[in-house]
Amino acid sequence: MSFETLALFSLACLMLAITPGPDMIYVLSRSIAQGPLAGLVSVAGFAVGITCHALAAAFGLAQLFESSPLAYDVLQYAGAAYLAWMAFQTFRSPELPFLTNAKAPKAALWRVFRQACIGNLLNPKVILFFIALFPQFLNHQDGSILGQTLILVLILNIIGSAVTGTIALLGGRFGTFMSSRPRFQKVQKYLLGTVFAGLALRLAMGRST
């Protein structure tokens, strides 16, 4: 895999990680209600869910490429259309409220982990995102699809866990920061939409890697 591909993927991961969403709010609420440890356990649950999504996508894409080379091109254009739709939805989405007094019901840590993992696995937007995003970073001409996936999911989990792990440790202070700075969320939203639009354009025009 080229440095350009890894750098672009890392940028996309960073933008996704710092943009407020359900995962971030779940980690924050658990951290406020039960302490930093519960927040970190939530982060671990999300990481396991993301890894399962990535491996499922890798095995499915590998079989698809072997059975029908044309399907690779079709999947590229379908992914470009989906990413363009994601960019549009991101630009028009409202900012998420951050409640510093959020009180999630307390639960055993294993249940916190399970809820985070299952919630991630059953999230249809996450499933569609992996189908749309991964094909433009995986190249069947560069060797094992599984090997490439393991590299990408490692990068994704390192960046995502670093961001959400910091939120888990900061707890209420992060919630106060976000709730008092609505413009910060707006900037994040437009940056993420721009990343989605750029990835969609890259897919539609084909890849050099």
UniProtKB/TrEMBL annotation:
GO terms for cellular component: plasma membrane. It is found in: Cell membrane. It is a multi-pass membrane protein. The chain crosses the membrane at residues 6-28, 40-62, 74-91, 112-133, 145-170. Keywords: Cell membrane, Membrane, Transmembrane, Transmembrane helix. Its main location: membrane. Pfam families: LysE. It comes from the Bacteria. The keyword Lipid metabolism does not apply. GO terms for molecular function: amino acid transmembrane transporter activity. The keyword Repeat does not apply. This is Amino acid transporter. It comes from Elstera litoralis.
